[in-house]
Specification:
The structure holds 2 protein chains of 2 kinds. Chain A is of the alpha/beta class. Chain A has helices at residues 17-27, 69-83, 94-107, 216-226, 234-238, 269-275, 304-317; strands at residues 4-7, 10-11, 14-15, 33-39, 56-61, 87-91, 110-115, 117-120, 126-132, 137-143, 149-153, 170-173, 182-188, 202-206, 229-232, 259-263, 280-285, 298-301. In chain A, helix 4 links the parallel strand 14 (202-206) and strand 15 (229-232). Chain B has a 9-stranded mixed sheet, with helices on both faces. Chain B has a two-stranded antiparallel ribbon with strand order 2-3. Classes of the chains: A alpha/beta, B alpha/beta.
């Protein structure tokens, strides 16, 4: 079997948990697994490569500075040249998506993003399943095995691989000469606020279904009464109805509460990426075809404003004060 | 300055769909095509840059069949100056790499200083046409741009891009470049009745993609998922009161 290259997702100088999910996805393909690490100080991350199933580590040292997708692309290109994998796995994140399409285009590789299932078909083809048309339909794609295929896997779908021993084989690759065309000026951390979605046991998240900004008030109130933190999907943030600190999703917070109440959220990919791993997902939506119901444990086809009113009334009847 | 904005006629489908006879796509009557919402932010950004500079041209470009012209006309109604469509098979539309190469062919002819794309399409959600397009054109690319500022006449650009968790990075780069524009970067304008009428009659230039390389993938089949990840769903019966009662019960079980 040919090797699968897992490209580590590095956030804040550490291997992101999604890397271990990629290892699980890679192991299912049957071949050896190489873990690729491109960062400023790869040696400092070797201790984190003890992941069950990883056979070897490939490192590329990057120059200091911000995230430059062209530098990153050439680092991964160099890994591919050395390892000659048939499948290159990356997390479907903003960082990876910023260069993976360019990598596939320039190197003439197969490509699929937001993949939720990966296997070798009975006919030997690499088979990737990804949601299409807003997640209401899944497409099963087959890839030509003549070239390598770049796959961006949706986070929180595969299980996290267990701890293992740090691989003894570490291949160091030099970064090819690459002209940097983008100059890093600085980072700006998101404004801190009292909204602690990360630590919340219960998240009550609202989406477009709230209808208007005035309707948000009641959800904020019942969230407080239920001991939940108020979350929101991207469109509400874009509309300026709630500050960005409330956003759950790919560009917002990734949360794993015990209970995630999704009110009027259709379940666009960007949102699912941020809450898919919640223990119990409760979805209320008027559209029974909404993709959120594909990930929900409990569902209801109902008007969320009516449900909110009922929750408030029933809590009041039990003597829960606002 | 000339800006090309790449847009997509994205497909939405209703809750119930039937597949075509080959089983490799949704049957056409169930497809609800419309201009990809994320692309409207890219169009607005191009129009804003043009209007603020008081000069320039905004060309909207799509890859697709004649049906995709409707998306271009929406952009013309918003205020774009010119529309171009690259002929593209439905099969190619599932492969962002070959879509990018198709778009690149038309962009080379247009020779713009700036190329904008939406951050992702609502139907395929791969976030990859922009980066692949930059590669095909040999240009620098910044994804998920929230704020775009043109430098003073020296062809430079300052961009604020967004990462996970709302982290922002400011970068500087030289034109020409490709940017994907984040949703919420601006408030996209709507076409007026008059501009919509005018857009209906506007000429749309149709060009050929040339050599876009061989297909590396094909759609084996499509299917409607029943339940994701083996979760079985409990549907709450009854009205809003019943739904509310069950939700309160679920929350109180953990607290």
């Amino acid at each position: 079997m040919s090797t699968t290259l897992v490209v580590a997702e590095i956030v804040d100088g550490h291997l992101d948990e999604s890397t271990r999910e990629l290892v699980t996805a890679a192991l299912a393909l049957g071949g050896p697994v190489a873990l690729g690490i491109a960062t400023e100080q790869p040696a400092g991350l070797l201790a984190e490569t003890g992941i069950a199933g990883v056979d070897q580590v490939v490192t590329v040292q990057l120059p200091p500075g911000g995230f430059d997708h062209e530098v990153y692309r050439s680092a991964v290109e160099a890994m591919i040249e050395r390892i000659a994998p048939k499948v290159v796995l990356l997390a479907f994140s903003i960082r990876s998506a910023a260069f993976a399409g360019a990598l596939a285009e320039s190197a003439g590789l197969g490509f699929a993003a937001d993949v939720i299932e990966l296997r070798i078909g009975a006919d030997g083809e690499l088979v990737a399943v990804k949601p299409v048309y807003g997640g209401k339909v899944y497409a099963e794609l087959g890839f030509d095995t003549g070239t390598a295929t770049v796959v961006l896997a949706r986070p929180n779908v595969w299980a996290v691989a267990d701890d293992g021993v740090v691989p003894s084989t570490v291949v160091e690759i030099d970064l090819p000469e690459v002209a940097t065309r983008v100059r890093h000026l600085g980072y700006q951390a998101p404004e801190s606020s009292g909204v602690d979605l990360k630590r919340a046991e219960v998240v009550l998240a609202i989406g477009r279904g709230v209808g208007s900004q005035e309707n948000i008030e009641i959800f904020a109130r019942i969230a407080e009464q239920l001991g939940a933190v108020l979350g929101a999907s991207r469109p509400l943030i874009d509309a300026g109805w709630l500050p960005p600190a409330h956003q759950v999703g790919q560009t917002g917070m990734t949360v794993k509460p015990k209970i995630y109440l999704a009110f009027g959220i259709s379940g666009a990919l960007q949102h699912l990426a941020g809450m898919h791993a919640s223990k119990t997902i409760v979805a209320v939506n008027t559209d029974q075809g909404a993709p959120i119901f594909n990930v929900a444990d409990v569902g209801a086809i109902a008007d969320i404003n009516e449900v909110a009113e009922q929750i408030q009334q029933q809590l009041a009847a039990r003597g829960v004060s606002a | 300055m000339k800006t090309v904005v790449c847009v997509k006629q994205a497909i939405d489908v209703p809750g119930f769909v039937e597949l075509d006879s080959a089983g490799t796509d949704v049957d056409a009557p169930f497809m609800e095509p419309d201009l990809n919402e994320a692309d409207t932010y890219a169009v607005e950004e191009a129009l804003r840059l043009r209007d603020e500079a008081g000069e320039g041209e905004v060309v909207v470009l799509t890859a697709g069949s004649e049906g995709a012209d409707a998306a271009l006309r929406k952009c013309l109604a918003m205020g774009a100056d010119h529309a171009v469509r690259v002929s593209c098979d439905a099969a190619v539309l599932h492969d962002p790499i070959r879509v990018a190469r198709s778009l690149a062919a038309a962009i080379r002819t247009q020779a713009p200083e700036l190329v904008l794309c939406g951050v992702q399409s609502s139907d395929a959600a791969q976030q990859s046409t922009g980066p692949a397009l930059a590669s095909a054109l040999g240009l620098a690319c910044i994804s998920v741009a929230k704020k775009i500022e043109l430098g003073s006449a020296d062809g430079s650009l300052t961009v604020q891009r967004e990462f996970e968790g709302g982290l922002l990075e400011s970068v500087a780069l030289a034109l020409p470049a490709v940017l994907t524009v984040q949703t919420g970067a601006n408030i996209p304008r709507y076409g007026t009745f008059k501009s919509t009428m005018r857009a209906k009659k506007a000429q749309i230039e149709v060009v050929e993609p040339g050599d876009i390389g061989p297909a590396a993938s094909h759609v084996r089949r499509m299917f409607v998922p029943t339940s994701d990840g083996g979760r079985s769903i409990e549907m709450i019966p009854g009205g809003a009161a019943d739904v509310a009662a069950r939700i309160i019960q679920i929350v109180q079980e953990v607290s």
